[in-house]
């Protein structure tokens, strides 16, 4: 048994949001002694995580079924990036997530009330700071990378054809609406850098 609490990375349920904590982050936690479980990613392309389940296994995590987090063992910390689904059941485990509740977003009372009802704690990533007052979790390298790559694609399109809007991402991703990985985003292949 570990001296550290069990952490469960939940599968995310927000359509077309494929971000997650990376296998590298999970490996760091495993190497530090944390027991980690990762819910299997959805196979539905709208909900599929950007990282493969096998990458989490290789990082030392144990894969579990999707959707088990509400019934996790007491003391398990539930980890996720995006908001939890809007339901009514009390949250009995502590959560580390972006809850989007502290800036008067609609329904914040109901969302926060679920932790109070379950006697658990929300560690909202938006408000966790280090001893210097800096946010612990902020947009990282990949967010900047994706923004810069899309900006360059847009500029290239405008320089080549200023009379039309940049086509939607669905046009360049076989209708998916998202890139499978960073190589697909930046590799111009035969379509040209302004096309996708």
From TrEMBL:
The keyword Amino-acid biosynthesis applies. GO terms for cellular component: cytoplasm. Pfam families: AlaDh_PNT_N (PF05222). SUPFAM superfamilies: Formate/glycerate dehydrogenase catalytic domain-like. InterPro entries: AASS (IPR051168), AlaDH/PNT_N (IPR007886). Keywords: Amino-acid biosynthesis, Lysine biosynthesis, Oxidoreductase. GO terms for molecular function: saccharopine dehydrogenase activity. The keyword Amino-acid biosynthesis applies. SMART domains: AlaDh_PNT_N (SM01003). Residues 8-146 form the Alanine dehydrogenase/pyridine nucleotide transhydrogenase N-terminal domain. It comes from the Eukaryota. GO terms for biological process: lysine biosynthetic process via aminoadipic acid. This is Alanine dehydrogenase/pyridine nucleotide transhydrogenase N-terminal domain-containing protein. It comes from Fusarium oxysporum (strain Fo5176).
